[in-house]
Amino acid sequence: MTVVSPAVAADPAVRRRRRAGAAGSSTGWAFLAPFMIVFLLVFIAPIIYAIYLSLFRDQLIGGSVFVGLDNYLVAAQDGNFWAGLTRVSLFLAVQVPIMLFLSLLAALALDSGRLYGSSFFRLSIFLPYAVPAVVATLMWGFMYGTRFGLVGNINDSLGVNLPDPLSPDLILASIANIVTWEFVGYNMIIFYAALRVISPSLYEAAAIDGASQLRVIAHIKLPAIRGAMVVAAIFSIIGSFQLFNEPSILQTLAPNAITSSFTPNLYAYSLSFSGGQYNYAAAVAIIMGVITMIIAYAVQLRGIRKDGQS
Amino acid sequence: MSGGLITLRSTRRPKTPPSVLRPAKSRLLTVLIGLMVVYSVVPLIWLVINATKSQQSLLSSFGLWFADDFSLVDNVVETLTYDDGIFLRWLSNTMLYVIAGAGGATILAVLGGYALAKFDFVGKPAVFAVVIGAVAVPGTALAVPTFLMFSEMGLTNTPWAVIIPTLISPFGLYLMWIFCADSIPRDLMEAARIDGANELRLFLQVCLPLLKPGIVTVALFNMVATWNNYFLPLIMLRNENLYPLTLGLTAWNRQASTIGGEAIFHLVITGALLTIIPLIVVFLLLQRYWQSGLSLGSTKE
Questions:
Q1: Does B108 contact A133 at a Cβ distance shorter than 8 Å?
Q2: pTM
Q3: Of B212, B124, B112, which Cα lies nearest the Cα of B167?
Q4: Where are the bilayer-spanning segments (chain A) (predicted)?
């Protein structure tokens, strides 16, 4: 922690230059360069390559042929792609609000100081985040089982007939439950961290004005963590459109309910790795990327605009 | 103005009246959030209980209670030795990917976040726009082109194919950026510069110690992401000996549905339990660091 030994004291010329340039451009770039070099390799180059790939088609005769936007036109009329997109949109519209609402509720409850044993609660709810999606899905998949699983156990011992969570009708809800289980605690911690840094003086002022708990939440807490909520919403939207792990692992348990085009990502994966249709898969991936960016951007704009009003 | 506060803090009355600052504990709220705890913990309890069962009693006994036989030790031994101990191989692969990938990602994020927070340089707004834009691109959308690129470079089916993409964590960069902006006073940097410290020394000896909670937080989140990674190794790796734990477990699970494959659900469950224990332990041990790191990281929101 101690600062610098006098032995290194530079000559006045250097000192003056440093102060004037406020540690110039080159130093900043030197620190950023390692990140940017790898970033170019694993983010920018694949994006450019994907765009390039999406403009070609592999023909049996003649090899790779430039087809312009043809792959995109095919995707626009592809029932499998649309069904998957509709499915993840429905998932997004239902699961994300429920999950974020539960996270917010838990964070506000923890922050309110009205809970007995709050640190135990905080850690237990956060715990599932440390569980890999693979393990979470395997676990829930076993529990969902109507024959040997927990659902089957309950049916047997209570003499009831619970609906099969792995049936085509319920599979999307079952996946939504797994994803909610995984991320409620994570979002709760993000919100909670943002709530902790609100200045106590605001609460004191509210107390003097005689504000109720609900008013404090509505007028101090929620506006203060709007940024965190926007970030959480954007990450959840990206996650929904990327849905892959959970359906892909449940596929072995519910082969009839989960097709290879269940989500756009699963579709792109099976197009390339079982079908060898890399060019079309690249087009599907890019369409999904663009849709995600547009929605994430819209959410961000909306968050910022509200910020401006308050 | 402070009169009300003083009476609240006084110890004369054992029961302080409810207020915004010192609210009364609420049983109802505790029960409500308790339900969420039950929801969060029940599957984990299920996992622990069922790791104690043999393959047979797994199918015949009630899921949320122990079976007559207690086979936890047998299961652990069998998990670690099955198929010539491939589980241990997967564990060491996972650790390699975590140390090289998540460790590297943390170093890059700290350096980059420091640069973005503390220096004004040409092209900084562009960097900001590109990095934030890239976050919105689904990682899985990049997977296919990354696979094809890596396959042309001869990197697929090697550990590099998993480690190199893991090195970039835009979320880590963002968190570190905010953290550096908050926790390193510019005056301190100026003072060190006037004393003649060069930039590297300034970073290593003055700034780095201040960043400790942020670094622990970013390292931990990178570690979780790498430990839990499934999609990337799934597309990049063909050789079972290079699998991380997540991929190995799903391979074991699929084995039951392949023709002639032996059902080893008890090993899947015990293996799953062994997979989550290290992360949970790390989170519990370091909770003070990462929680304060997150709080500081969110001040600019």
A1: no
A2: 0.87
A3: B112
A4: 26-52, 88-108, 120-143, 170-195, 224-244, 280-299
